[in-house]
Structures are given as C-alpha cells and as structure tokens.
Amino acid sequence: MATTRQKAAARRNIKKAVKVSATRRRKGMAPKTGKHPLSSRAERETPSTKFAFPKERKEPLTDASHVRNAIARFNQVEGVSASERDAAWRRIKAAAKKYGIEVSHRPR
Questions:
Q1: Each residue's pLDDT tens digit, 39-73
Q2: Where are the domains positioned within the chain?
C-alpha cells in the first residue's frame, strides 16, 4: 500500500508530466508516447534476418539502440549452440558497422 509521502510524490510527478506535455504542444512538438521503439506487432512483422539469433528471433538489430542492447546482452542469451552464437556475433558486428557503433571485442 502506498504511503502518504508516495502519493504526494506521484501527484507532483503527474503535475510535472502534464506541464511538460502542455509545453510540448505549445511549441508544436509531437507528444511523447512512452512506447518502446519496436512494438510487439512491429517485432512480429520484422523478418527473421533482422535478428542476431534468427531461429529464436532474439535480439533485434533494427536500429542503433537495439544493436547496443544486443551487444550488452549477448552473453545472457540461453539455449543456443556455439555455432549459432558465432553467427549471431557476426550479424551484430555487421549491424554495429551499419549504425556506426564501435565494437572493441566480443563479450565473454
């Protein structure tokens, strides 16, 4: 259950968010949606070739942030063989080069 202090903080955060949203509207800027850049529908429609692990459809490589995430989480992927892991690393390096991300070494 939320405390009185937590409720007050939540109210302040909501006020701040409303104020920022109104400011963005006045400036003619698009509202922030808060959605992940790759929705579940977009991920389903993404071809398997755009994933580091295409058979499992793990680690999408659709933009620079996803490539950085794939590099960071490379060792956390389970249930893949060593050859699949090697092929995935090659795909990640190619995507990193495409998006201008410097990769110094393969995570261990």
A1: 778 888 889 999 999 999 999 999 999 999 999 99
A2: 1-34, 40-98
